[in-house]
Amino acid sequence: MSVAISAQDIEGFVNRQLQSYPKSRLLDIYKSCFQDYMGVEHLVSDRKSVKAYLDEELNTTSLDELMPWYYEPCGIESCYYRVSIRAIKEGIITEDQLLDAFIRSANSETRPSVESWSDRWHMIIGTIDQMKLDLPDFQEDKQFIDSVLSVGKYAISHSPDYRNAYHPHYRIVEKRIFECEIKPLITEKLPASK
């Protein structure tokens, strides 16, 4: 389970996020942080529908639209990884390998409570406030996140700015599963992995 994080950890993550994704809004910083803390957004019981959604995404997305990376850590602690569908499209891993890792990640652990996530987010946003960032729509995004948390929910989508600029197409995989099963396949096929 997650441990205490420092203001320095938070600032380091936010600065890396903004350097890698300058079109990020607070919504996108929040999303990466909740993915890191909460994992996959829902339990997966219907493999067929999850596969159909992934098939559609693979069939309607070109390599040119995808970010150049195969994987990246989520959030501050890197408890989960985003694995790009680029790895499937380039034949580095199979669709079934990513699907299996994603489903097991979604179903593997007891999810932390929304209340514990809300407490953690309030600590994170306190540090972000002190950073005095000039993020677009900052106050509106902050209020929207608070409204989601206030009704006992936590999951949100990437901002339209982020989606338009970066075309995020990935699946979330728990760190242990990623490091044991997915990362070795990527490293084996691409020693200088992206």
Q: Main sheet: which strands, in order across?
A: 1-2-3
Q: Tally the helices: what do you get? A: 9
Distance between the termini: 28 Å
The helical percent reads 55-70%
Cα radius of gyration in angstroms: 17 Å
Which of globular, elongated, flat, extended, rod-shaped describes the shape?
globular
Q: Which band does the percent of strand residues land in? A: 5-15%
Mean pLDDT: 93
Largest sheet: 3 strands, antiparallel
Report the uncertain regions: none
Keywords for this structure?
mainly alpha; 194 residues; 57% helix
Please, could you describe this protein's structure?
The protein is mainly alpha-helical. It is built from nine helices and three strands; from the N terminus they run H-H-H-E-E-H-H-H-H-H-E-H. The chain has a three-stranded antiparallel β-sheet. Helix 1 crosses helix 6 (114-131). The protein is globular and about 45 Å long. The two termini are 28 Å apart.
What's the structural blueprint in terms of helices and strands?
Layout lengths: L6 H14 L5 H13 L8 H14 L10 E3 L6 E5 L1 H4 L5 H13 L6 H18 L6 H13 L9 H7 L3 E5 H15 L5
Antiparallel strand pairs: 1-2, 2-3
Short structural description:
With 194 residues, this protein is mainly alpha-helical. The protein has nine helices and three strands, in the order αααββαααααβα. It is 57% helix and 7% strand.
